[in-house]
Design a protein that fits this description.
With 468 residues, the chain is α+β, with helices and mostly antiparallel strands. It is built from seven helices and 27 strands. An eight-stranded mixed beta sheet has the order 14-15-16-19-21-20-23-22, with helices on one face. A seven-stranded mixed beta sheet has the order 13-10-9-24-25-26-27, with no helix packed on it. A four-stranded antiparallel beta sheet has the order 1-2-6-5. Helix 6 packs across helix 7 (342-352). The longest helix has 14 residues, at 293-306. The protein is globular and about 60 Å long.
C-alpha cells in the first residue's frame, strides 16, 4: 500500500467529491479528483484501485468566506476509486467518453424572485438527478453555476456600486466600453463577497448525484468573472493545479484590493480520444462591444492551432453566434433582434476571416437562458447550440420558436425553446453525434424539446422539434 491510513475524521468531513478533466503542459488530458472538506479537517487519503494516494490542499482565496479546504490528487482512467477505503465511491473515468450530458446556466437567482426551494421553479437538482440515473460518461457544464451569490450591485463602505459584468445587465456607461476602474464584489468593504455557502447551494448540492457518477469539464461563465464568483470558480472548478504545473499551474483572481478584476484563462484542449473539446474562456467577451477584441483575436488564433485531426467541439460560455430579444436601445441593430456575440465575431474575423477550422463541427454555449440551435446555410460555418436553460429562471420568449435570420452575415435557421432542459449526446467513434434536449421534470413527466444530429441532416437543420 502507498500512503498512510485514511483518517475517519477527514473522510467524514468530506462535503463534496468530484473529478474534473484538465490539460497538462504536454497537451494530454488527465483526471483530477477534488474533495471539499471542513476547514479544520486534514486532507483525506483516497483509494485508487488497490492503493492509497494522498491529496494535497489548494490555495484558499478567502478563508473568511470559504471556511473549507479543497484537496486534490491526480486520478486514473478506467479504475474504481473511493474516498478512504470505505467512503463514497468515485466515478470511473473513461478515456473515450461517448455518452455526454451538457448543462448550462444552472444556478438559482433568488434575488430576482426565483423560488429556489421549489423544483418547478428551479429544476436543476431534479434534472441532474435524472441525468445521473442515465449513467453518462461525461458532464460538460458551459458556465454560470452561481447566481444567488453574484448580485448586480453591492454596497461598499455604504455606497452602492454596479459590479463589473463585461457589459451585461448594467447601464451602458458601466459596460464594456468603460476603460475602468471596475468594481468587484470581492473588494475590501464589500457587503457580499463570493462565498462557499452560495456555491454549495447553487451547484454542489443539486449536482451531487451527477458528480458521483461522471467526471466534469467546467467552462467559465460571466457569473464566474473575478468581479463576481471568480474566486470560487478558480478554487473549486478551475483547470489549473500545481500538480499539473506549466502555464495552468493553480490560477486565481487578482487580490481583493485590485480595481481591475480581469483574468483570462488561455484556450486549452480536452482530448476525449477521437473527439476534442476546445475550451474558450469568453467570460469577458462583451455581447455588444469590442473592448477585448484584440485579446480574443489571439485566443482564436490559438484555438485554430489546437484543432487537430480529430473532430472537435468549441466550448464557450457566450455563444459565438446567436439571437437575443429585441435590440432597441443597443448599437447592434439587426433590424429586430440583437445578434451576439459581437466581441467574439469580430475577433474571429480578425483571426481567420470569420472561419473556424474544418475540424470544428459544433459550437456549444450557454449564457442566454433558453435552448437555441442555429443551422447556417453556409456549410463552412458549424452549427451553434446553446443550452442556457439548465435552471436559471427563463425569460419571456421574444423570438419565434422557429425562424430564419441573418446572423453575422450568414442566413441561419434558428430554433429557440423557452423550457428548462439539458442536452444528452451520444458520440460515435468517428465523431458523429446525435442527441436530444430533455426536460425530464415537465408537467407531463417528460418532454423532449428537440432532437439533434451532426452533419447536414435530411431536415436541413441541426435540431428539429422533439416529441414527448
Amino acid at each position: 500500500m502507498v500512503g498512510g491510513s485514511p483518517s475517519d475524521a477527514s473522510v467524514d468531513a468530506v462535503e463534496s467529491a468530484y473529478i474534473i478533466l484538465v490539460p497538462t503542459p504536454t497537451g494530454s488530458t488527465v483526471p483530477l479528483v477534488r474533495l471539499i472538506v471542513d476547514a479544520n479537517a486534514s486532507c483525506p487519503v483516497i483509494s485508487i484501485a488497490d492503493r492509497n494516494a494522498a491529496t494535497t490542499e489548494r490555495k484558499n482565496p478567502h478563508a473568511a468566506t470559504f471556511p473549507i479546504k479543497v484537496c486534490e490528487a491526480i486520478y486514473e482512467y478506467g479504475v474504481a476509486g473511493r474516498v478512504g477505503q470505505s467512503g463514497r465511491a468515485l466515478p470511473i473515468v473513461k478515456q473515450r467518453p461517448r455518452h455526454i450530458v451538457i448543462f448550462g446556466d444552472t444556478g438559482c437567482y433568488d434575488d430576482g424572485g426565483q423560488d429556489c426551494d421549489r423544483a418547478a421553479a428551479w429544476p436543476f437538482g431534479a434534472m441532474a438527478g435524472w441525468a445521473a440515473g442515465r449513467q453518462p460518461d461525461l458532464l460538460i457544464h458551459v458556465g454560470d453555476y452561481n447566481y444567488r451569490g453574484t448580485p448586480g450591485r453591492v454596497t461598499i463602505d455604504g455606497v452602492a456600486h454596479w459590479v463589473y459584468d463585461a457589459g451585461d445587465g448594467v447601464p451602458a456607461k458601466y459596460g464594456c466600453r468603460q476603460p475602468g476602474p471596475y468594481i468587484s464584489q470581492n473588494v475590501s468593504g464589500s457587503d457580499d463577497w463570493d462565498n462557499w455557502p452560495d456555491w454549495r447551494d447553487d451547484f454542489f448540492v443539486p449536482a451531487a448525484d451527477l458528480l458521483s457518477v461522471t467526471p466534469l469539464v467546467a467552462s467559465r461563465g460571466n457569473h464566474e468573472l473575478c468581479s463576481r464568483a471568480g474566486p470560487g470558480w478558480f478554487y473549486l472548478l478551475g483547470p489549473g493545479s500545481p500538480l499539473i504545473g506549466g502555464a495552468m499551474s493553480e490560477q486565481s483572481c487578482t487580490p481583493e484590493s485590485e480595481t481591475s478584476p480581469i483574468r483570462f484563462v488561455e484556450p486549452y484542449r480536452i482530448d476525449l480520444s477521437g473527439l476534442d473539446l476546445l475550451m474558450v474562456d469568453s467570460a469577458n467577451a462583451c455581447d455588444q462591444g469590442v473592448l477585448y477584441r484584440d485579446h480574443y483575436t489571439e485566443e482564436f488564433i490559438k484555438v485554430q492551432s489546437l484543432a487537430d485531426k480529430d473532430p472537435a467541439w468549441l466550448v464557450t460560455h457566450r455563444p459565438l453566434w446567436g439571437l437575443r430579444g429585441d435590440d432597441r436601445g443597443s448599437d447592434a441593430v439587426s433590424g429586430k433582434f440583437l445578434v451576439i456575440n459581437q466581441t467574439l465575431q469580430r475577433a474571429l474575423s480578425s483571426a481567420s476571416g470569420g472561419h473556424l477550422s474544418a475540424e470544428i463541427d459544433l459550437v456549444l454555449s450557454g449564457h442566454i437562458h433558453v435552448f437555441q440551435a442555429l443551422t447556417f446555410e453556409d456549410d463552412t460555418r458549424p452549427p451553434q447550440i446553446f443550452v442556457g436553460n439548465g435552471g436559471i429562471g427563463l425569460p419571456k420568449l421574444e423570438l419565434a420558436p422557429d425562424m430564419t435570420a441573418d446572423v453575422d452575415g450568414v442566413r441561419a435557421a434558428v430554433m429557440t425553446r423557452d423550457r428548462f432542459g439539458f442536452l444528452e449526446m451520444l458520440v460515435d467513434d468517428d465523431g458523429a453525434w446525435h442527441g436530444r434536449v430533455i426536460n425530464p421534470v415537465a408537467e407531463n413527466g417528460f418532454d423532449m424539446l428537440a432532437e439533434c444530429q451532426s452533419g447536414r441532416p435530411p431536415s436541413g437543420a441541426v435540431c428539429i422539434p422533439g416529441g414527448t
